[in-house]
UniProtKB/TrEMBL annotation:
SUPFAM superfamilies: Amidase signature (AS) enzymes. The lineage of its organism: Bacteria, Bacillati, Actinomycetota, Actinomycetes, Micrococcales. NCBIfam families: PRK07042.1. Keywords: Hydrolase. Residues 65-482 form the Amidase domain. This is Amidase. It is an enzyme of class 3 (hydrolase).
């Protein structure tokens, strides 16, 4: 279900290879031993954003040295992992040098001037292509930056590059007709998760501390769960988008909650380009962990639709709930609140939306779309106008059900997804294109309700695959939610 064998083997197209350093363009995969050594050896690329900022301020570190280490990590690991789409090492060096000069002159643009960051390829960067993971020729060139890109540049962050995504962002994996396969940074045999595939892998593999993805049904939290990250789908409107849409959000994928908080302090600011921007955009972003003592916490172990939860995942979430109770939280069971008819209606509306994009393509362009995606969206052609409206109304129904079920709770605990990471080559955990979304039953409700939800590592299965705990809260309480996630990181063992 991917490109030609040559594209899949190297994970690159010819145009990508031409724009990358020779060591990466050659497509020689790093050995697993080298990859493990890179991940086990402490280096500047592995430092968190707080440590980097402190080092820049006291002169013990420079952006030039840090970004050189990040470049080396990418050149070592990305031929195998394939997380980067737009990566220009010379431009990264130039941006790092400019940041180093600002620090030397005592005039940094912000506390995080010179900190490395990546952005998902559907987050616009002026003058850069925006193919959304498809191999369709002549992708649109972004005329300007997305709000997130502008906030990062205003802070002096060094954008290392754009990260990969699957076709149109409609897969929970790193399988793409343009990029080939993006692999898991912890175990390359496994999926990266998606659709923020490259962002998750870049975070797990240590391509610097800060990474921005997008999420419309779980696309930040699924890579987070399957790569052991802290990954936040923020409140609706908290991070402005240049292309706002029901349920869509941008947010951080990081190795710690503290770094997610730091990234939010940069990008969670109002922007008039997003009509959904909320007045709560100005928030205080403290990295101090917050124990849930006295909080009312719901524990949801069944979604009411989709795949059954694997036993080891269920046990990990139950153990997490015990830690909350031991810390003084009032933990109560929460029954399923979204039925299969609602989830199926949402997915069918997404099919219709994707079919609208597919229908206008030429035959040659359609041939470039990943066959799995083509088959998935073609089903959207069969719905009448009336059924399409009914399916669209499921978004509102899901939002209402979620808000009603979670009202009165400070936090809601659940699995991120019922299943652990699957093979990197598979486009979805369910490989039937007509039955694909049974793994988003815990994540999608919070996209539609607009509530924040974070994936934080809760353990590993016996075979080493990571398990994510989803913690959700009420809309506009993102700083509290991330501080609780930081607390959980400190007690989970």
């Amino acid at each position: 279900m991917t490109d030609s064998p040559s594209t899949q083997a190297s994970g690159q197209t010819a145009s990508q290879a031409a724009s990358q350093p020779a060591s990466q363009a050659a497509g020689e995969p790093a050995s697993q031993a080298a990859a493990q050594a890179a991940s086990q050896t402490a280096s500047l690329a592995d430092l968190d954003a707080g440590t980097l900022a402190a080092g820049y301020a006291n002169g013990s570190l420079t952006p030039t040295d840090v970004l050189e280490d990040v470049i080396a990590r990418i050149e070592l690991r990305d031929p195998e992992l394939n997380a980067m789409y737009l990566f220009d090492a010379d431009q990264v060096r130039a941006d790092a040098a400019a940041s180093t000069a600002r620090w030397a002159a005592g005039s940094p643009l912000s506390t995080y001037d010179g900190v490395p960051v990546t952005v998902k390829e559907n987050i616009a960067r002026a003058g850069q292509p925006k193919p959304s993971g498809t191999a369709i020729p002549n992708p649109p060139i972004s005329p300007g930056n997305a709000p997130t890109t502008d906030r990062l540049l205003e802070a002096g962050a060094v954008i290392v590059g754009s990260t990969t995504m699957p076709d149109w962002g409609m897969l929970s994996s790193g399988v793409s007709s343009l990029h080939g396969i993006t692999r898991n940074g912890l175990d390359p045999a496994l999926t990266s998760g998606g659709s923020s595939a490259g962002a998750g892998t870049a975070a797990a593999a240590g391509y610097g501390p800060l990474h921005v993805g997008t999420d419309i049904g779980g696309s930040i939290r699924l890579p987070g769960s399957w790569q052991g990250l802290t990954a936040l789908k923020p409140s609706e409107g908290l991070i402005p988008l240049d292309v706002p849409y029901d349920g869509r959000a941008a947010g951080p994928l990081t190795r710690t909650a503290a770094d997610a908080i730091r990234l939010m302090s940069i990008i969670a600011k109002p922007d008039e380009r997003d009509y959904l921007t909320r007045p709560y955009c100005e928030m205080e972003w403290s990295t101090e962990p917050l124990a849930p003592n006295g909080m009312r916490v719901a524990l949801q172990l069944e979604a009411g639709s989709g795949l059954p939860v694997e036993a080891e995942t269920l046990a990990a979430v139950q153990r997490a709930a015990e830690l909350f109770a031991e810390a003084g939280a009032i933990v109560e069971p929460l029954e399923p609140f979204v039925g299969a008819d609602v989830l199926d209606g949402l997915v069918d509306f997404w099919r219709s939306r994707s079919y609208a994009d597919y229908e206008v393509l030429s035959e040659a362009e359609r041939a470039c779309v990943l066959p799995f995606i083509a088959e998935w969206c073609l089903a959207g052609a069969d719905f009448s106008a009336a059924q399409t409206i009914r399916n669209r109304n499921r978004i509102d129904e899901m939002a209402q059900l979620t808000r009603a079920a979670t009202a009165g709770y400070d936090l809601i605990l659940s699995p991120v997804t019922p299943v652990a990471a699957f093979a990197a080559e598979d486009p979805m955990p369910i490989t039937d294109p007509l039955q694909t979304m049974g793994h988003i039953s815990f994540t999608a409700p919070y996209n539609m309700s607009g509530q924040p939800a974070v994936s934080v590592g809760a353990g590993v299965q016996a075979d080493g695959r990571t398990i994510g705990l989803q913690i959700a809260s009420q809309i506009g309480t993102d700083p509290m939610l991330l501080r609780v996630a930081a607390w959980f990181e400190s007690v989970r063992g």
